[in-house]
Write a structure and sequence with these properties.
3 domains; 19 strands; globular; 20% strand; Rossmann fold; pyruvate-formate lyase- activating enzyme; OB fold (Dihydrolipoamide Acetyltransferase, E2P); 6-stranded parallel β-sheet; 5-stranded mixed barrel; alpha/beta; 15 helices
């Protein structure tokens, strides 16, 4: 991606990664002595898909160190919480869950408790853990994920708490072991960090600056996943549309080249920022047969003044222009979005602009949130006179409008046949799958269908999900 064909400076040298493997081997010896019956590790990840991808790498490193992964914290010898900082509720829940571990640590002094991720990258959160939760052994931020073996070795050999919260622009560590949670759906990070500094968001502060993986590394990993039989590959980034910024290799090109890999699989991506979404990208989506015709494009607000205060970098008109073109080149496109209700200073009249945009856009579904103030962001300093109760009424008005739209969209799908990836078994005992447009559909079938594509004819609409029947192939 560089003119000199050299790796960017933010990509960690292979020698450093090899050193972590040495630490991994040392930890393996230590835990075999400490836990003669075998060491068990429980990992719980909060938050977004990017965090989930990090969690799979953390699990991969733990397996490499000799831990057996378990599904419950009970009887675990190591508990790791991979945290999220995007909303206040996530932080409060984390503190509660960590507090509940105190008794477990008292009963089993050999239990190791680790906290990492976005929340721990924030100094105020790390300091609170240090002062108020002395039974936590290791705390590290997003920039030190790849150093888990080293940090665990330091704790095991010294018996002292380890805190590793570095304030930096960020790096990329390749060739880490991965323990994937699924055998047919895979997360594939293509870039990390964010340069946008939306006024409400902590991501640039906890994830660092934008940095892209080398295209050959991304494509090689995608090719490997296809070879292993993965059917659904999601490309991840805080803003995938800015992939390769500053080079002649953009996201549309990466998408096109992954589409050329031989095999029967589906490509998804998230998250897209409207200010960097181009007609070229939409044309590429339309042309590439393996790229799902599903676009997650957060708009956050339908009012231009609020968008400016959010520092989003686009207008209502620009957003709708993008959607209009997207629907033109992909008539069956499914669009989902994110929206914040009750941004500081937002009036009810401005909120109604959001409702009208939702009705005009025709989203399949939305992730809707009441504004949550985050320490250190510009929005946290803004006047916020509207009560939580009033914002709750706005929230219901918006979700009611979206429910009407979703009901209308899914009703129109009755009688049509869709290619569905079978993903699991629903609570009602039916096979649960997902259409190309990311809509859940349930239908009678055998569990051996899980992990395969099947054609399903829709027979019933339940607003957010569909019911159907297998079509004989």
């Amino acid at each position: 991606m560089t003119a000199e064909n050299k790796k960017p400076s933010y990509i960690i040298d292979n020698g450093i990664i090899e050193k972590q493997r040495e630490y991994s081997s040392l930890v393996s010896t230590l835990i075999s002595n400490l836990y003669p019956a075998g060491a068990k590790a429980f990992v719980h990840t909060y938050g977004c898909q990017g965090n989930v991808a990090d969690g799979e790498r953390l699990e991969g490193m733990l397996v490499e160190m000799g831990y057996e992964l378990v599904d419950s914290s009970e009887n675990a010898d190591l508990i790791l919480y991979n945290t999220c900082a995007i909303r206040e509720h996530a932080e409060d829940r984390l503190y509660g869950n960590v507090g509940a571990l105190k008794g477990m640590k008292s009963a089993n002094p050999n239990l190791k408790i680790l906290l990492c991720g976005c929340m721990m990258q924030q100094k105020h959160a790390a300091e609170k853990i240090k002062k108020s939760y002395p039974f936590v052994d290791i705390v590290f931020g997003t920039h030190a994920v790849y150093r888990l073996p080293e940090l665990l070795y330091r704790n095991l050999t010294s018996g002292k708490r380890v805190f590793e919260i570095t304030d930096e622009d960020g790096s990329i560590a390749e060739n880490l072991p991965v323990h994937r949670d699924s055998s047919f759906k895979a997360w594939l990070p293509i870039m990390y960090g964010c340069n946008n500094f939306c006024s409400y968001c902590v991501v640039p502060y906890v994830r660092g600056r934008e940095r892209s993986r080398e295209p050959e590394d991304v494509i090689a990993e995608a090719r490997h996943l296809v070879k292993l039989g993965y059917k659904d590959i999601t490309l991840l980034g805080q803003n995938v549309n800015s992939y390769g910024k500053g080079t002649d290799y953009n996201f549309a090109r990466l998408l096109s080249e992954i589409n050329e890999i031989e095999g029967d699989f589906r490509i998804r991506f998230m998250t897209s920022h409207p200010k960097d979404c181009t007609f070229e990208l939409l044309d590429t989506m339309a042309r590439c047969d393996k790229v799902a015709k599903h676009l997650h494009l957060p708009f956050q607000s339908g009012n231009n003044r609020v968008l400016k205060e959010m520092n989003r970098g686009y207008t209502r008109e620009k957003y709708l222009e993008l959607l209009s073109y997207a629907y033109k080149v992909m008539p069956d496109l499914s669009v989902t979005s994110d929206v914040i209700v009750g941004f500081p200073g937002e009036t009810y009249e401005e909120f109604l602009d959001t409702v009208s945009l939702v009705r005009e856009a025709g989203f399949t579904s939305m992730y809707t949130f009441i504004f949550s103030s985050r320490p250190g962001t510009k929005a946290s300093l803004m006047d916020d006179p509207v009560s939580r109760e009033e914002k709750g009424r706005w929230f219901k008005e918006l979700t009611d409008a979206q429910e009407e739209i979703a009901d209308s969209r899914t009703t129109k799908m009755i009688g049509k046949t869709y290619r569905v990836l079978c993903e699991g078994i629903s609570k009602g005992g039916l096979i649960e799958g997902r259409t190309e447009g990311n809509i859940i559909i349930e239908f009678p079938g055998s569990p051996d269908l899980i992990g395969s594509f099947r054609n399903v004819k829709v027979s019933e609409s339940l607003i957010w999900i569909l019911r159907g029947e297998l079509v004989n192939e």
